[in-house]
């Protein structure tokens, strides 16, 4: 009841109590300001915040680029492959060996490869060796394994993401093919793995992620037999213009954010705000 009285009607102790209560509830006037405005309006507290930001930024920038990519694909296997996708493949291959793969890659079809790489002279019957470098969740390794099912070909899957490798292994198992060797590792490690030479190397959307793409390309070239060939896919600068613009926007809204989940939440909020 006393709180509703005018201040001059209150005892001294009550007035003092209300004063301190009011001071304690005053909002932080610097909250929500951008970094530049906080530094201008709030002074010293922002200097400490800026130091924390700079320390985090240095730590982030000094982190090995390859390690960052590895962490990303370990958490988010690519290409995305859901439980529903797995169930669909299990249903398709259940009980019989399918002649036609459920997933097709025309660029990796044996006829296309024979025409463009081997002048029509490759029979794929004499221990044809394939390297899938950066195999992800298994699209390429599955398609190649199915095509070469009834041959003595050997297909080596290489990827540094345990999560992606596990999905690829299950997909290969569903297809009942036994001509695939799974290797956990990176393209840069290839010379030390002792996997030998290959007749065909396939790498889709991988080289441009490496700290040194030229080195990665050289490693793949050195892994080929003299008459071997490859199929590489790299991101197209102009074809992905819109994607790069969105990436620039994502970096702006995530300035100073170093947690992947927080970054994703910011992006989802941005997308939802666009209607």
Structure, briefly:
The chain contains twelve helices and five strands. With 275 residues, it is α/β, with parallel strands linked by helices.
Question: What this model shows, in words?
Answer:
This protein is α/β, with parallel strands linked by helices. The protein is built from twelve helices and five strands. Strand 2, helix 8 (162-174) and strand 3 (180-184) form a beta-alpha-beta unit.
H/E element order = HHHHHHEHEHEHEHEHH
Radius of gyration: 29 Å
Average pLDDT number: 82
Shape: globular
Unreliable sequence segments: 1-26
Major β-sheet annotation: 5 strands, parallel
Helix content: 40-55%
Q: Using DSSP, what is the number of strands?
A: 5
Content of β-strand: 5-15%
| First and last CA, distance | 49 Å
- Count of individual helical segments: 12
Structural class: alpha/beta
Strand order of the largest sheet: 3-2-1-4-5
Observed structural traits:
alpha/beta, 12% strand, disordered N terminus
Task: Describe the protein's topology.
Layout: H1 12-24, H2 35-42, H3 44-62, H4 65-75, H5 83-93, H6 110-117, E1 129-133, H7 139-147, E2 154-159, H8 162-174, E3 180-184, H9 190-193, E4 198-204, H10 213-222, E5 224-233, H11 241-253, H12 260-273
Parallel strand pairs: 1-2, 1-4, 2-3, 4-5
């Amino acid at each position: 009841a006393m709180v509703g009285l005018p201040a001059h009607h209150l005892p001294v102790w009550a007035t003092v109590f209300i004063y301190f209560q009011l001071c304690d509830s005053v909002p932080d006037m610097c909250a929500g300001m951008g970094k530049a405005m906080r530094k201008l309006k709030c002074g010293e507290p922002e200097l400490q915040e800026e130091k924390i930001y700079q320390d985090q930024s240095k730590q982030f920038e000094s982190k090995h680029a390859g390690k960052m990519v590895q962490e990303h694909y370990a958490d988010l296997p690519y290409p995305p492959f859901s439980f529903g996708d797995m169930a669909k493949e299990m249903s398709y291959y259940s009980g019989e060996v399918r002649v036609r793969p459920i997933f097709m890659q025309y660029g990796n079809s044996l006829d296309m490869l024979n025409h463009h790489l081997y002048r029509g002279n490759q029979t794929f019957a004499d221990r044809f060796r394939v390297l899938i470098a950066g195999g992800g969740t298994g699209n390429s390794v599955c398609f190649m394994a199915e095509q070469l099912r009834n041959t003595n070909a050997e297909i080596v899957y290489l990827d540094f993401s345990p999560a992606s490798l596990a999905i690829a292994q299950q997909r290969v198992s569903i297809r009942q093919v036994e001509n695939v060797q799974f290797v956990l590792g990176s393209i840069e490690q290839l010379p030390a793995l002792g996997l030998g030479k290959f007749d065909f190397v396939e790498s889709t959307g991988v080289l441009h992620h490496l700290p040194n793409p030229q080195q990665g390309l050289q490693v793949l070239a050195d892994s080929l037999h003299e008459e071997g060939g490859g199929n590489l896919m790299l991101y197209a600068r102009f074809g992905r213009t819109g994607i790069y613009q969105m990436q620039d926007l994502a970096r702006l809204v995530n300035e100073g954010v170093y947690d992947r989940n927080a970054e994703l939440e910011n992006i989802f909020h941005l997308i939802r705000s666009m209607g």
